[in-house]
Write a structure and sequence with these properties.
The complex is a heterodimer of chains A (113) and B (109).
Chain A: E1 5-7, E2 10-13, E3 19-24, E4 31-38, E5 42-50, E6 53-56, E7 65-71, E8 74-79, E9 88-95, E10 103-104, E11 108-112
Chain B: E1 4-6, E2 11-14, E3 19-25, E4 32-38, E5 44-50, E6 55-57, E7 60-65, E8 70-75, E9 84-91, E10 97-99, E11 103-108
Parallel strand pairs in B: 2-11
Antiparallel strand pairs in B: 1-3, 3-8, 4-5, 4-9, 6-7, 7-8, 9-10, 9-11
Classes of the chains: A mainly beta (113), B mainly beta (109).
Chain lengths: 113, 109
């Protein structure tokens, strides 16, 4: 079975540009999570969806960040405009509500110059 | 105060040693607990769940102390392949997983 799929795997962009990260959760999972990981702050939850509905977006840093989940098999995290401090690894994870395990995608390594 | 705290390490131990990590959490209403493992430049992966009665999986033993709000992970007979970062994870409301900062382990030959 395919795991969580993320694209792109690496992204290098210039400050001010729009960045869109994509995630395809495991089929049948109904919860989806976006995380950001840096050396300084560790793994931070940005937002999570349940049945395609955003449940908690309190971790989204500011208005420059937005996330959507138009259907059960696709989600995007958008940063507009991007800034150097957004450089991090962004992970998407999915699970089935009530299950014990989250499954993480391989992550997108973002570098904003 | 952070919700989930861990000693960042690094813990440098020789092969065959026994090593233990602790993790404390602040929300007494937390429902479930886990240890995840993250290898360098990889995604986190579930190592084991932590049950109230304690549980063991091969060389790994996890324990939960709800009264003191801490979780532990014991690794016996450590292997080179155990070198990784170990993340303590607390599920507070059945959906939201809160990750600790991780403890880095290096097992040396």
């Amino acid at each position: 079975d395919a795991g969580v799929i993320q694209s792109p795997r690496h992204e290098v962009t210039e400050m001010g540009q729009e960045v869109t990260l994509r995630c395809k959760p495991i089929s049948g999972h109904n919860s989806l999570f976006w995380y950001r990981q840096t050396m300084m702050r560790g793994l931070e939850l940005l937002i999570y969806f349940n049945n395609n509905v955003p449940i908690d977006d309190s971790g989204m840093p500011e208005d420059r960040f937005s996330a959507k989940m138009p259907n059960a098999s696709f989600s995007t995290l958008k940063i507009q405009p991007s800034e150097p401090r957004d450089s991090a690894v962004y992970f998407c994870a999915s699970s089935y509500t009530g299950a014990e395990t989250q499954y993480f995608g391989p992550g997108t390594r973002l570098l904003v110059l | 105060r952070k919700e989930v705290e861990q000693d960042p390490g690094p813990f440098n131990v020789p092969e065959g040693a026994t090593v233990a990590f602790n993790c404390t959490y602040s929300n007494s209403a937390s429902q479930s607990f886990f240890w995840y493992r993250q290898d360098c430049r990889k995604e986190p992966k579930l190592l084991m769940s932590v049950y109230s009665s304690g549980n063991e999986d091969g060389r790994f033993t996890a324990q939960l102390n709800r009264a003191s709000q801490y979780i532990s992970l014991l690794i016996r007979d450590s292997k080179l392949s155990d070198s990784a970062t170990y993340l303590c994870v607390v599920n507070e409301d059945g959906q939201n997983f809160v990750f600790g900062p991780g403890t880095r382990l290096s097992v040396l030959p």
